[in-house]
Write a structure and sequence with these properties.
The chain is α+β, with helices and mostly antiparallel strands. The chain is built from 16 helices and 48 strands.
Length: 808
Amino acid sequence: MAAMLYWLTICHLLISTTSYASCVASTDTLFPNQFLLDGQTLVSSNQRFEMGFFSPFFGYRYLGLWYKNLGPNVVWVDNRFNPLGIGARLVIDKTGCIFLQDFFKTVRIFKPNQNVPRPVLQLLDSGNLVFGDSSNLTAGEYLWQSFDYPVDTLLPGMKVGWDQKTGINRTIISGDYLFKLESGDSGQSPQLVLVTKQQTVSRWGPWDGRKFSGSDALMDNDNFRPIFNSTTDACYFTFEAKDDSTLKLSLNPDGKIQFLRWNNATMVWAVVGILNEDICDQYTTCGPYGVCIVEDPPCLCPDGFIAASPGDWDKMDFTKGCRRIIPLNYTDKDVFVKNRGLKLPDNATYWGMLSPEECGEKCLNERSCMAYTNVNINGNSSKCLVWLADLLDMRRPQKSGNDIFIRMAHGKLEAPVSHGRGKTKRKREWIVFVSLISVAALLILSTYKVLCQAMRTEVLDEPEINQPGNSPGALLQGTDVIAYDSSALAAATNNFSLANKIGHGGFGNVYKGLLETGIEIAVKKQDVTSRQGVKEFENEVNLIAKLQHRNLTKLLGYCIHGVEKFLVYEFMANNSLDKVIFDPARRVTVTWPTRFNIIKGIAKGLVYLHHDSRLTILHRDLKASNVLLDREMMPKISDFGLARVFNDDVEEKTQHVVGTRGYMSPEYIENGHHSTKSDVFSFGILVLEIVSGQRNWGYRHPIYDVGLVGYAWTIWNDGKAIELLDPVIEKPGDLNEVLACIHVGLLCCERRAQDRPSMIQVVSLLEENEMSRLNFVPLDPYFLKELSHSGRSRDSVNGFTITESTAR
């Protein structure tokens, strides 16, 4: 081994000095057929930044970028998941492809999808490594740039946020922590957040036109100027340094986010700002409606509120927050009380450009609207923000707060936030007295109203449901599934408010709810205009109510209220699989062991459906959005609206083909034939998606010009199947699990149904002690060429119902 390393080193030196047509050192550009060798660097023209190969520890080489002559301060790394060995070099060829190579492998950085007449790679004075046509670089037209792929550091001009045209979502990550601009999905206002394992750690925002609300550390100061941009094309945060200082924003492995400035006198990086420095920077320190202050104790309640659990507050446990002294009326008798100088709560929803009066009136008419404010985005204070659930994560900053109007019962008109200190005993007694009188009056009125309503109902009401097959008794005889009352579901979901919406699909929307018993639920509310009707609803209820398996979603109950239909499921904390593995930010956190467990869990769920339950059930719509994940990332197959019961495990034919693009088997698409092997095919597609982090539908490999299955098949035959593994995650030490999953995925995607394994065989092959049995070669799989490339389904003699791949 020592002799081999010796000769490899000699060869490297000889090649470095004799074989290359053109090498570079200490310039800022790299042209086609030039190489940047290990030991050579690119240096920006102002001599501030330098790029080359480095080793954080012995044996591996990484392409990095750092401040020149400022000690160890790497600010960007390209190949952190693909380290190089002996002979590391950076290459740009005449077509514009950028590669990293050593003596044993090649790692592609970028391949243009268009002809580049004069390709050039250049290190700019800003620290941005850019690629494009030399005639366009001066105009800022880049085909690729390192600023789009930050690691744990932001330089001035680097962005956190997303670009709608390119689909790039820029985040910074260090250890278990991820700093990102949270999406404005479902009308929510974008804000900066620090998360770990999908749990929010800290929050800054939302942006109000000049600052991030409640975030003093992100205000304009002597060192930097914050910049926020939100348009239809892009939404991002960045900053610019003042006085031409050497400045950077760094995320540490312990979760600290710091602004660092280089001190030429001391020759060290000095901390000039910390974003999450005190207890009030921790998410929801003071619980719902609580206000955090940097004092002891750190929490107080707004005026008109008291501690929800005074005993816990005495023990310095503030997690239960505050509650109103007088409960809301939820009528036009409610009022809004102005609270000054607060950090705006989490989960703000944007209701459009409305005046303060219009915003308040609209909020009053929405039962779930707990507060509102107007921010000065366009210079006229006309952006209406509302909160449709409890107010979370408020604080009182020194200078970056906003006014917010909180909904209160009529009669509670005192305004600002009170510290709750220095009040006289007489005032406290007066408040208690008035509160008791008010509560007593409300109880009397409520009792009277209930009695009147009961009498009226006894005389006038008729049963809402009197249709054969749709009544609770007829629908679920012999099961323990609960028939819920619609009012209970409305109360659990804040009247199905937007703040509680967690998904949608062809059937309607899904809402998170909390029952009076404290159980979290997910309520699927069928839209009255949904293409799925009574048959699909009854099919799902009847099937899933009779199924019990840890990898299937559990149906808790249902509700039929007139024309409205609801299904009640156990709540899945991590949402659906597609929102994890296809999200650029979240997929980084899903390690290979977690992905492997998800694959095995789905397979075991299908074994139960196909073989172990007393009925043979074909799902017919297995896809990433129909796999839900609980708090431990355990997968659970959901949505049985299209499922079928088989008497025998044989192939049947349907006249109405249903399913989702990219997941349907060829015999099903072409002839309407389906069997359990149709689900096996869908499972194979899903496995390849989980391994690669890519959607099958719409995927096209830039080099091989094939879809996802075709790409997997090609590199499998070339002996490079491991390249399918999602590059954003760390490769496991044992690659056998990855290769086994790719192998199984290809076996399940074979064109002929009879060539595919059963799900029992799949589970056996995936078990650790059965890896050695993977000794048979997959046949030519079905590439889905038309479906994955053209974006159109092929014609069929049967009727088609094809659903989009979204959460259902």
